[in-house]
């Protein structure tokens, strides 16, 4: 019984029991393929790691917000971390109750805050004094008491890529720790606000427990200080951030992560909220893409030009991110070095350089691994390329959970 979701069977790569070549043939490329079993397993693994303590996972919808994925997470018992009113609407359509949703984001518009407040979400994770004032104004005008958690900037460097590091002092996220206690007192004193929690999210793709633990410790310290002053909150929300081993290595142990977080949170007795995204979705998905051209060069690796690019998966172009790439059917023959490039008019549109692969031919299909998070959600129509479809493999077959966008749909909004 294979333990990994995407596993070889002879020369073929399978998703659970389904040959990826069957999906590529039937659905065309580029196409995203997700494993339902892998999503379920990853959710259960994170949940189980924290089983000894009152907690709730609020899946970070930004990682992958396709409706069927959101529905699946709801059935697994998850809550939602939404980052825009669009994500709140997806969550509602997926059947989440307002109380299942925490609403995060550094630049929430008035209409977004209004929607969240009137719905009565579990917490609006407020990012600044200005935002707190706006929430208070709206809440007061409606005779409501908005549930607010204050997002702290703990000034912790999680050692991740600078573009996905959110907890250093210079970043745009949250309020400085030094100002947090005073702001909490103000929130607690305002009858239009209900201070329910403290929040921090120090970044994404973090592979060490220490920065995550340090930020959690700061939240707990602050919460205990508030309690001593008579302000009792309900929860600490330690955000997401757990990294995955894109190189196929061991990665961050969930048990070590949970032990680190719980060692600082447990003494507080406060409920624990977590906002995992990548760790649940990334390993559950691949992007299938077809080789459309092979070009040899005077020196260096041959170019394999594929039919997906930064429009489908921007992470390599945006962060220099590494994704393993495998042919879905291996041709016989020794490895050869290829540079895997997309079709877009950008040199950064490259999925991998000098990748050893068996011989490739035009028409071959490659699987870009660990593409289930921050893949389809970050797609664009640059170069007028329609969005790729998404398939969910479950119970030995697959179904379309988002169909391919047509050129007509791509132009629908224009006059
Ligand atoms: C506030 C917040 N919570 C949760 C997440 C999810 O992070 P990850 O996918 O790394 O778990 C993010 C991602 O950037 C975020 O900004």
Give an account of the 3D structure:
This protein is α/β, with parallel strands linked by helices. It folds into two domains: 6-35 and 282-411, Lyase, Ornithine Decarboxylase, Chain A, domain 1 (Beta Barrel); 36-281, TIM Barrel, CATH 3.20.20. The protein has twelve helices and 21 strands. It has helices spanning 20-27, 36-49, 67-75, 85-93, 110-119, 129-141, 177-189, 209-228, 254-265, 278-281, 315-319, 407-411, and strands spanning 6-9, 12-15, 18-19, 31-35, 55-60, 79-82, 101-103, 123-126, 146-153, 175-176, 193-199, 235-237, 271-274, 285-295, 302-306, 325-327, 336-341, 350-357, 365-368, 390-394, 397-402. Strands 4, 14, 15, 16, 17, 18, 19, 20 and 21 form a nine-stranded mixed beta sheet that branches. An eight-stranded parallel beta barrel has the order 5-6-7-8-9-11-12-13, surrounded by five helices. The protein has a three-stranded antiparallel beta sheet with strand order 1-2-3. Helix 7 (177-189) packs across helix 8 and helix 8 runs parallel beside helix 9. It is elongated. The relative contact order is 0.16. The model has no long low-confidence stretch (mean pLDDT 95). Bound molecules: pyridoxal-5'-phosphate. The site of pyridoxal-5'-phosphate has 17 residues, from helix 10.
